[in-house]
Amino acid sequence: MCLGVPGKVVAIDGLSATVDFFGVKRELRLDIVDEPVLVGDYVLNHVGFAIRRIPPGEAEETLALFDELLHGTRSPDDLMAADVRGEIAAGREKD
Amino acid sequence: MPAPDQSRELKFRDPARARALAEALRRTLDAVGRELTVMHVCGSHEQAIARFGLRTLIPQGLRLLMGPGCPVCVTDAPEVDLALSLAREGVHLCTYGDMLRLPGTSRSLSDAKAEGARVEVVYSVSQALELAERRPDEDVCFFASGFETTAVATAAAALGTPPKNFSVLSVHKYVPAAMEVVAAARERRIDGYLAAGHAAIITGFALFEPFAKRTKSPVAVAGFEPLDILAALLKVTELVRDQRPEVANVYPRCVTREGNGPAQRALWQVFLARGGRWRGLGEVPGGNLELTPAFAHLDARRRFGLPTSAGREEGREAEATGCLCGPIMLGLASPSDCPLFGKTCLPESPVGACMVSSEGQCRIWHTYGGPPDLREVG
């Protein structure tokens, strides 16, 4: 649950943002993010809420790690990968 | 798909750097001149430690324990019983996935669901709000588990305009309070702590400074990659060596001194910390996050007349089963000490709470293994 997953903000509507996680678009709430978020920023997701805006350079490194975690393992019971998938799913799927 | 040059990017998993950190750790521990015990309080830390076999890399004189870091595991059986009683009354319950199979005093929500109760798994409180909006004729209750980071999301939902048929049964827990209990335990001295990076994103690392000073134990805020964890262990060991009970931020790419101000304001506007029981730990002063009087109208305990604290016969389940979850969560035992672990207690049929959740130490050790016993492999 602690593995906040980063995604790229592609649209903002009030306190709701459409965020791209590894090619999957989800809706996240912006109620409690630490600083103002703009389209193009990366944010950390925790259970459907953005909890931190992350500087772009740092986001690239973290994204590469999560990519490896999601795609680099074939074990069906990889708990870390399962938690990351859960985190991504935490945002409601964009219609 | 991963980029072709991805390995270059994975600097937080570089084996050469990991070996260098482990070597520095060994030298620092030698300078301390005695064995050290360091505790982390996060299921995601344990996942990374077990998945990457970090206990084989750190020196033998450094004992790395998991404390009360699994929010599902520390949810007390009578708290599950409260949710079960709501389900019995026809309330439509929403909760996070691992909560479903968590045993109450005698049954789980999964048992209730099998018998026809309406229990939904949600990934976010937002989905519970949407369900309440779609079903205005039903009582929809969010059975809210998780530590302070997750409680912030519940707080944001409460601060919006939730529909009248929506309520919250909070079993949110506040980790810093449990660290005090562990530090006060006489059975084992903890020399230093790793604090969970994402909780610290919200609270800021300054939160741990009074704790470090009072307990004379340094705290390092750590991220979730192998090098994050090794670097934090090295930092804690250095601070012990130098007799500096301070807080070190070893996760500066995410954590600041002050933390996330808007999230903290939302948290403490909606919740207050009260004493209550944690499974395995007993009474934790200031450990339970309850709704403040201003949000009493959302409180399922009040709306449905539930007891504020449910009674039960002390320690009965644990004695009956021989389960060691309690001592394991206090850092006094390991999963491999438990006679049930991997035998009658399995991920598909858990006896204790630590085998239920993906953040429980027994579940993690069962998936990845604990420290290898070199006698077994010859």
Q: State the CATH architecture of the largest domain in chain B.
A: 3-Layer(aba) Sandwich
Q: For the terminal residues of chain B, how far apart are their CA atoms? A: 40 Å
Total strands of chain B: the figure is 11
- Total number of distinct structural domains of chain B: 3
Q: Indicate the structural class of chain B.
A: alpha/beta
* N-to-C series of helices and strands of chain A: EEEEEHHE
Most residues in contact, chain pair and counts? A-B, 37 and 58 residues
Q: What's the CATH C level of chain A? A: Mainly Beta
Total number of beta strands of chain A? 6
Radius of gyration of chain B: 21 Å
- Structural class by helix and strand composition of chain A: alpha+beta
Distance between the termini of chain A: 25 Å
| Strand adjacency order, main sheet of chain B | 2-1-7-8-9
Secondary-structure element series of chain B: HHEHHEHEHEHEHEHEHHEHEHEEHHHH
Calculate the mean pLDDT score of chain A and round it: 79
β-sheet strand percentage of chain A: 35-45%
Residue-averaged pLDDT of chain B: 90
Protein described:
The complex is a heterodimer of chains A (95) and B (378). By secondary structure, chain A is of the alpha+beta class. Chain A is built from two helices and six strands. The longest helix of chain A is centred in the last third of the chain and has 16 residues, at 56-71. The model of chain A has no long low-confidence stretch (mean pLDDT 79). Chain B has 378 residues and is of the alpha/beta class. Chain B folds into three domains: 12-70 and 176-249, 3-Layer(aba) Sandwich (Rossmann fold), CATH 3.40.50; 77-174 and 262-303, HypD, alpha/beta domain 2 (Rossmann fold); 320-368, no CATH class. In chain B, 39% of the residues lie in helices and 15% in strands. Chain B has helices spanning 6-9, 15-32, 43-51, 54-57, 77-88, 109-114, 125-134, 148-159, 175-184, 197-203, 209-215, 226-241, 261-270, 300-303, 316-321, 325-329, 361-368; strands at 36-40, 62-66, 92-95, 119-121, 140-144, 166-170, 192-196, 219-222, 247-249, 271-278, 282-291. Chain B is globular. At the A-B interface, strand 5, helix 1 and helix 2 of A face helix 3, helix 7, helix 8, helix 10 and helix 13 of B.
